[in-house]
Amino acid sequence: MSIIKLVSKQDDAFVFDVEALREKLAIYADHKVSVISIAGAFRTGKSFLANWIIRYFELDRDENWLDSEDKLESQLEGFEFARQREPVTDGIDVWGQVFELEHAHHGNIAVVILDTQGIFSLGSDFSESVAIFAVSLFLSSIQIYNIRGNLTRSDLEHLRLFASYGQMMIDQNSESACVPFQRLVFAIRDWELDDDLGLEDGTKFLQSVMEEMEDTEEGVELLNSLRTSFGKLNCHLFRHPGSDAVRSDDFQGQVAQLDEEFKDGLKEFIPFVANDDTDNSSDVPTLKISPLKQVLTVDDLMDQIDAIKEIFDSGLIDKPESMYGAFSKVSHGKAVKEAAKYWNSKMNALLPDMPESRREKPIRTDFLNDGEFEEKLDKYSKKTWEIWNEQPKLADEEALENVRKGLEEKMSQDIDNMRSENQNREALYDKTWAARCACIVASCACCVACKCA
What's the pLDDT tens digit per position in 372-394? Predict the structure, then answer.
């Protein structure tokens, strides 16, 4: 299975390319979407962990997905991983297979899995690390933050920028139940500080680290922002995969060579991130939602990617104001799409299609009289603006007014076009009707003349 490069490094600069992903996701446009992404420091086993998520879905989430006999000695496939000092992942990769699931209430679901290059390492530019982390976090519905050895205050400090963005979004939308980000799961690898392991002990540990930060005013401020910016925070403690295994030249992720405690960790962690524990209605990963809690489609995800690319290319992705502007634009765009969907459907049905046989000789039902026409336009216009007003939209008055004007201009142009078409049909009907009447009169006159003769 191929890997799609969403962000790659060319000539010492990151390049954002969305077209390959757009082409891949086109057939899933109307599906609701879940995006599982993993980020963290380089050489901490991110790709290795992401590949177990891929295997879980490839085996249809069977309860024996890890211990199936035919997989015990098989190579782990997915994103490239290797035991070496040099980074393996460059930029942001998207797994080329989209997993289709069914949700009890939301229908078809497309699951997308992302892998990112190592961040916050000595050899990488800090702004580049922030940019990669930002893209991963903004696109994900489930963000795995991969850390080796221990969770420290500095790891949480790396989230300060995003907490600032989240706080800005909450402050500017105080009347809305706004959640900037969704699930953040810390995966602490190679844990050796005590015998605690797993999700429950890991989440308790995360809570203890956060409580220690409450000793300072700055720490309290950051924690409050994190708690309000993320819908849910969890932590999982992993043991090392097994020294003998990973040091072996022929180790390619074979289950049979893994440490038992690490396998136990996988059995708990992978199904946890692959199933939404906040929604008991269906066993699918957390669905991607907007900050205003609208469930998003693959098409909506592509709109977000386009907006992120724009600020990424401008070099402003580390500015909370720019990030907020991009997401408010996406929010307003979604409102326009919902209103325009209704408006377009009504415009397409307003005047019936005319068969070729009637294009020269229309009949009365091919057009509306002026009263009917204006009545329907007024009804459809009011309903379109009702839909627009009902759609949740992030606060940004200037941007909102620009988008609203765009919709208004489109509707006005459509009305002019429809009115012109309706009048043309009516005029053509009147013309052909007059001609038909003249023909009838002439025929009658001819008949009378013949009779007289």
Answer: 889 999 999 999 999 999 999 99
Q: Is 394 exposed, middle or buried (0-12, 13-18, 19+ CB in 10 A)?
A: buried
Domain ranges of the chain: 3-314, 335-442
CATH of region 3-314 = 3.40.50.300
Query: What's this model's pTM, rounded to 2 decimal places?
Result: 0.86
Looking from the CA of 280 toward its CB, the CA atoms found within 13 Å total 0
* Angstrom distance (rounded) from CA 168 to CA 172: 6
Q: Rounded to whole angstroms, how far apart are CA atoms 116 and 139?
A: 12
Q: Which two tokens stand for residue 368?
A: 């509306």
- Print burial letters for 265-274: b (CB count within 10 Å at least 16), e (below 16): bbbebbbbbb
Instruction: Give 188's strand partners.
Output: 147, 237
Q: Which residue has the tokens 């809305």?
A: 176
Q: At what angle do helices 260-273 and 46-58 cross, to 10 degrees?
A: 70
Cα separations (Å) of 395 from 155, 173, 317? 31, 6, 20
391-445 pLDDT, tens digit per residue, is 999 988 888 899 999 999 999 999 999 999 888 888 888 777 555 555 554 555 4
Rg of the chain over all Cα atoms, to the nearest angstrom: 30
